[in-house]
Design brief:
The protein has 209 residues and is an alpha+beta fold. 27% of the residues lie in helices and 34% in strands.
Length: 209
């Protein structure tokens, strides 16, 4: 489906290619135990004007309920954004909310200790360049990340990999509601909500070069 909203040319796929979804998830370093659970993605939005994409995804496994029936058990529900912020780091950097570490193992990237306790009490930082990461993670950048996390009611993750920023926000809400709407109306409404998130992320890092 091709949409046009407020001058943006947008591609929308309700059921995107699962290989594309898995490739993006793998590159984001969101979870490294990606093969442990079943996974699916839907409602992929590609906005080439603003150079980002986003999609809903679910991690789950099957278990038997008290009646012996096989049911799907959600491990994680969220939406992932891949955004071009206009700058590139020459190292990998992942910032993961500590709450995520209770459900998923830590990353294989080395863990960086942060002296800013308001930040380190909330987040764990992984990077392959301690010097570069400390230089990038100024107090202003850490405050920007904390403010982004406070904007959303859910678990939060952000990484900078290969020139892109990946942002994950967990949620239990239906992003693309079809109730009383056509498929196009639902897609446009969903796009507007995603655009708000992207604009907020870009605004947070507007001074980074």
């Amino acid at each position: 489906t091709y949409l046009n909203k407020n001058g943006y040319d947008v591609e929308y796929y309700h059921k995107p290619n699962p290989d594309k979804i898995e490739d993006i998830l793998t590159k984001s370093h969101l979870f490294e135990d990606i093969s442990t659970y079943c996974k699916k993605g839907n409602n992929l939005i590609i906005c080439r004007d603003d150079n980002y994409l986003s999609f809903d995804f679910n991690y789950y496994y099957y278990r038997r309920d008290s009646d012996g029936d096989t049911v799907e058990h959600a491990v994680f529900n969220g939406r992932l954004y891949k955004i071009d912020l206009g700058f590139t780091l020459d190292f990998d950097l992942c910032v993961r909310e500590n709450e995520l570490n209770k459900s998923f193992k830590g990353l294989t990237l080395p863990k960086l200790d942060i002296d800013y306790h308001l930040f380190s009490d909330k987040f764990t930082v992984y990077t392959n360049d301690f010097v570069g990461a400390k230089k990038f993670l100024s107090s202003d950048v850490m405050d920007a990340i904390m403010n982004l996390e406070l904007s959303y009611d859910g678990k939060f993750f952000i990484s900078f990999i290969d020139g892109f920023c990946y942002v994950m926000i967990s949620n239990n809400q239906q992003t693309f509601s079809m109730k009383g709407r056509s498929a196009e109306q639902s897609a446009i409404s969903g796009f507007c909500r995603q655009q708000e998130v992207v604009d907020k992320v870009k605004h947070a890092f507007r001074y980074v070069k």
